[in-house]
Specification:
Elements: H1 3-15, H2 19-30, E1 45-48, E2 55-58, E3 64-65, H3 80-90, H4 98-105, H5 109-129, E4 135-143, E5 158-166, E6 172-184, H6 192-202, E7 210-213, H7 221-238, H8 243-261, H9 265-278, H10 284-292
Parallel strand pairs: 4-7
Antiparallel strand pairs: 1-2, 2-3, 4-5, 5-6
Helix pairs in contact: 1-3, 3-5, 4-5, 5-8, 5-9
The protein binds zinc ion (ZN).
Protein name: Transposase zinc-ribbon domain-containing protein
Organism: Paenibacillus campinasensis
Pfam families: Zn_ribbon_IS1595
């Protein structure tokens, strides 16, 4: 078993020993300063613990709710321990494949695939809310281009817009990588117009220090490196990825990179849980639908 995975499982087992421990963690995250009724904002409640998922009944309007309502965990039939373990393994330096996850936590491949896509979906929604600001650089690059084969064509290369905010120290902070719809193959790139559209959507309107790098021979080098690293990391974990789900995997990569920059394992874990608590789960049908709507679905 690989060392990262083993270490992650060991640290997991020392922290969470029961369903109840996981549930209490989520309850504390949902209501950090005590229960608040989502309907009438009353703060007194009675806790009904006869069920697997504890219900809280508002002392005034009698509305019943649980800590999982409106979160990624809502409606799940899986034990929370399995979810928590999946989140822990999602944070491994190169993530985890659905096949491996299914073996480690003892669920079917389909369940593992669905869990990972739910986590990715939460990461995507959260990412869309966090705009880049401060000093921002934007490259027109290609994903999937083998750097050791400079002269040959790259039929699987895909045009991407990749951008980051840069700290005063020069270090890259948050990074976003977005596929440019319908532009595949070694010669395809995002145009200046594509980059502008990206900026409208992903860069804070108050940011004045945006620098564009639309030309292939003059890209911002640190960002090029991130795209190459993303390619290598995703390739090592998932093998060859079809373009159908590629955007979801790229979001996973950039989100993990950003979480891992956030400091200790403890902070990283806490932030990922916050994301899962903030973003409602997509039902299976819709999740599949979202995947289909990715820009390249028709050709993959
Ligand atoms: Zn109430």
């Amino acid at each position: 078993m690989d060392v990262h995975l083993e270490a992650a499982l060991q640290s997991f087992n020392s922290r969470y020993s029961s369903e109840q421990a996981c549930m209490e963690t989520l309850i504390a995250m949902k209501w950090p300063s005590g229960f608040i009724c989502p309907r009438c904002a009353h703060t007194r409640c009675s806790r009904l613990t006869s069920r697997r998922i504890p219900l809280f009944e508002c002392g005034r309007c009698k509305h019943q709710t649980s800590a999982l309502v409106g979160t990624m965990f809502e409606g799940t039939r899986l034990p929370l321990l399995k979810w928590f373990m999946a989140l822990e393994l999602f944070l491994l330096p190169d993530g985890i494949s659905a096949m491996r996850l299914s073996q480690v936590i003892g669920v079917t491949y389909k369940t593992a695939w669905l869990m990972l896509h739910k986590i990715r979906h939460a990461a995507l929604e959260f990412d869309a809310r966090e705009l880049l600001y401060g000093e921002v650089k934007v490259n027109s690059d290609q994903y999937g281009r083998n750097p050791s084969r400079c002269s040959v064509s790259h039929p699987y290369a895909t045009a991407v817009t990749v951008a980051c905010s840069v700290a005063e120290s020069g270090e890259l902070q948050q990074v976003k990588i977005r596929l440019v719809p319908h532009k595949r193959g070694g010669d395809e790139r995002a145009t200046r117009r594509d980059l502008t559209a990206f900026i409208d959507e992903h860069v804070d309107a108050g940011t004045s220090a945006v620098q564009l790098f639309p030309q292939a021979f003059r890209l911002y080098a640190p960002l090029r490196k991130v795209v190459r690293e993303a390619w290598q990391s995703l390739k090592s974990t998932y093998g060859a990825l079809g373009v159908k789900h590629l955007q979801a995997y790229l979001n996973e990569y950039t989100r993990r990179r950003w979480l891992r920059l956030s400091g200790t394992v403890e902070t990283m874990r806490h932030k990922l849980l916050q994301i899962c608590m903030a973003i409602p789960a997509l039902p299976y049908r819709q999740l599949i639908e979202v995947q289909r709507k990715q820009p390249f679905a028709a050709v993959s």
